[in-house]
Design a protein that fits this description.
The chain is about 30% helix and about 20% strand. It has about 80 residues and is an alpha+beta fold.
């Protein structure tokens, strides 16, 4: 079993959540809920895990050791 880090953010342009695995080209999706994004990424992995190019990319995958979150005080304009 492999655990992959997933980044998810909300796009106000599409009104959807966008999820991706940093460093893996084909591991990205967008959907209306976070649960759907995670489910789609799991399904995507299941489809790709037998693909030879994906296997090579996964074999060379560099895992991230640390993630840092820094709070930024910012005003967001609604216009």
């Amino acid at each position: 079993m492999i655990n992959l880090p997933v980044n998810i953010f909300y796009s106000s342009e599409t009104n959807q959540y966008i999820g991706f695995v940093p460093g893996l080209t084909w591991m990205h999706t967008q959907w209306d809920t976070i649960d759907e994004v995670l489910n789609n990424l799991q399904q995507l992995y299941e489809m790709l895990k037998e693909d030879e190019d994906f296997k090579k990319e996964l074999a060379n995958y560099t895992r991230f050791i640390w993630f840092y979150s820094f709070p930024i005080n910012a005003e967001v304009s609604s216009s």
